[in-house]
Amino acid sequence: MPSEESTLSYADGRLLRNGAEHRLLGGAIHYFRVHPAQWGDRLDRLKAMGANTLDTYVAWNFHQRRETDRPDFDGWRDLVRFIELAGGRGLDVLVRPGPYICAEWDNAGFPAWLTGRPGVGLRSMESEYRRAVTEWFDVLLPLLTPLQANQGGPIVAFQAENEYGSYGDDPEYVAWTRQVLLEHGVTELIFSADGGNDFYLDGGALDPAANPTMLATGTLGSRGAEAIETWHRRRPGEHFIAAEFWNGWFDHWGEEHHRREAAEAAAEVEQILDGGGSVCLYMAHGGTNFGLSSGANFDGGLQPTTTSYDSDAPIAEDGALTGKFHAMRALFGRFTELPELGSLAEPEPVLPAQTLPLTPGLELLSALRKPAGVASKTPLGFEELNCPDGLVLYRAQPILPRGGYQLRVDGLHDRGIVYIDGERVGVFEATAHEPLQLQGSGERAVVEILVENQGRINYGHLLGQGKGIRGLLINQRLSFGWTQIPLPLPDFSAEQLQQFSVATERSVAEPGFFSAHLQLVEPRDTHLALPGFGKGFVWVNGFLLGRYWARGPQRTLYVPAGLLQTGENLFTVLELEHGGDAIEFRERADLG
């Protein structure tokens, strides 16, 4: 019978695996950011880097998009298969089930239906929140506990919550996050993870004297020696693990692309390892925020994360082995025997560079007005409309004053395009929301506001913030009597996309739908660019690939071969600003 003692333990500052001294050399890869046809390949590359451990979060909203949905663990969501693939390659697995994961993922992994409940009390001892988490774990954890290493599987540790010291300071809640894992059959090591200094430990780590079996780990990108000294002072006897070493960084739309020199990142990792610690690279392979899964930060305004989650990681978004990969491999090789690279060192074949003409479909408003609307006296938010993501088209018919007036939107956290009687009059962004100065006739007019949910906040006290608008102000007067058309873009069917893409004679410069057909003999990876386009979304064979935005820094979208097929392939574009006449397939990524 397998033992139920934890595979990993620690004593006198050493990490032990089944009683033998062990150094954890890990890297994060998220199954939800990698096409499942590539799971094995990316795990092979992690192993080739010298890693002995895979780290992955579990994104609740990836498995249960709506409250009425049965949690889905099939196909792309087959978490068990991903973990078993890692185990088959001799990798240990750290599972981080949250429910809060941050990860620059939409809503930090929480479903919108949960955070939209008034008074739910996120990340606290509030009963409604704990009930929902427990019900989720009732489904999730029975899939994972049989995969524990002490039962013959690859999982050697579970994280309780995530970086709670960056959010709150309730030790009762932190203790509950550990207890709920135990109650669901977790017998392997349980750990917390917090920033690498006293402030974060104060809020997120349990007292080691009262909880000697909950290891505190660190999340950091530098000053590893200082973090180890902090752990020696605060957590004597524990082995220091950098559960997240940030060897790269993610990007926001409209900001600079992040790069970190390989030698500098490796020198910081070396400092941790030379200090006797263990390390898990975040990310080893970042992957892609497919669909509308990217989250957002807030620093004086919303900062939406790009579709690419390349993160300047050792294994690039398209699987390429970077200079950082080789630097980390050389470093890990000091502590483990390295496998041969073999064919992994060869570049992956890609589609040849080419340009594909686009056919304009329905004009933007004509298309988006087609689905049925929901009537209300005051505007309804995305959550009330059961629209987790995408767009909502709001419509009211206020009386516009004679002469000059101001038009404002209340409660907008993202981006709203304003139309009056079908004519675009302005754009509101939460980062620069000045009133529109307009002229009216004293008559009623149709005011439409197309609101884009650009990603829910994944870090900080604004976690769970709602999406949509609360009201329309004409000078100081509110408008009542609304119709809302929810447009959850990832749910669009092939029939809807085909309907929207019916060829029209409109100018390609106008916003709206576009389509193109690509014939392939052999599907291969490619990088999609949309020159001349402003902001919008792309589907590949009915799958929502992601957002694009001329604001950058990202200029191409990664298209894995698994989304393509032999024969005809359909590309559908929804442009919100101004279109172009072609899309390009490039052989290399351009992330800015």
Automatic annotation (TrEMBL):
Keywords: Glycosidase, Hydrolase. This is Beta-galactosidase. Transmembrane segments: none annotated. One of its GO terms (molecular function) is beta-galactosidase activity. Belongs to the glycosyl hydrolase 35 family. It catalyses: Hydrolysis of terminal non-reducing beta-D-galactose residues in beta-D-galactosides. The keyword Hydrolase applies. Pfam families: BetaGal_ABD_1, BetaGal_gal-bd, Glyco_hydro_35. Residues 15-333 form the Glycoside hydrolase 35 catalytic domain. It comes from the Bacteria. Residues 379-487 form the Beta-galactosidase 1-like first all-beta domain. Residues 511-569 form the Beta-galactosidase galactose-binding domain. Its EC number is 3.2.1.23.
